[in-house]
Design goal:
Trna Endonuclease, Chain: A, domain 1; 5 helices; 150 residues; alpha/beta; 2 domains; elongated
């Protein structure tokens, strides 16, 4: 009888543990995905927001390029002797391969060493795959959060 009772308590304990883990996971996901002021910005305003953040993060010569005809780069910057071309995307859904293709061209057009796509969202799997192949850095919402905390 006590052996069965032990098994019942063990199962109940495991069920309770799974429920607690699920609640914690949902809380973390909601906290990461909660709307933030940057989510409300228009495209060009987001570019200036990112430029300001880069300046506060130790980048120098931070320059927002002209709005249209920017050849795929919204911001040009430098850090530790390395030149960066950065494409900014403020969207309400994951970022796809087009942004990676744009900064790949922009990096070369502006003769920069590093190409970056910076966004308030996350990236699709194909975008991540292409970025690895083309050696493009992807700075998502979590990366921006870490920059803001510095």
């Amino acid at each position: 009888m006590t052996d069965n009772l032990f098994k019942i308590y063990l199962v109940l304990g495991l069920v309770l543990l799974v429920i607690i883990a699920t609640i914690i996971t949902v809380y973390i996901v909601k906290k990461l995905r909660r709307p933030r002021p940057m989510d409300e910005l228009e495209g060009h305003d987001f570019e200036y927001y990112c430029a300001d953040l880069l300046g506060k993060s130790g980048f120098s010569s931070v320059e927002v390029t002209k709005g249209s005809g920017d050849f795929g780069a919204d911001i040009l910057a430098e850090k530790d002797g390395v030149s960066y071309a950065i494409q900014c995307k403020c969207y309400d859904k994951p970022i796809g391969v087009k942004a990676v293709q744009e900064i790949y061209a922009g990096r070369d057009y502006y003769d920069c060493m590093v190409g970056v796509v910076m966004t308030n969202q996350y990236f699709t799997a194909p975008a991540v795959e292409l970025a690895k192949k083309l050696k493009i850095m992807l700075w998502d919402r979590g990366y921006i959060d870490s920059m803001e905390k510095e």
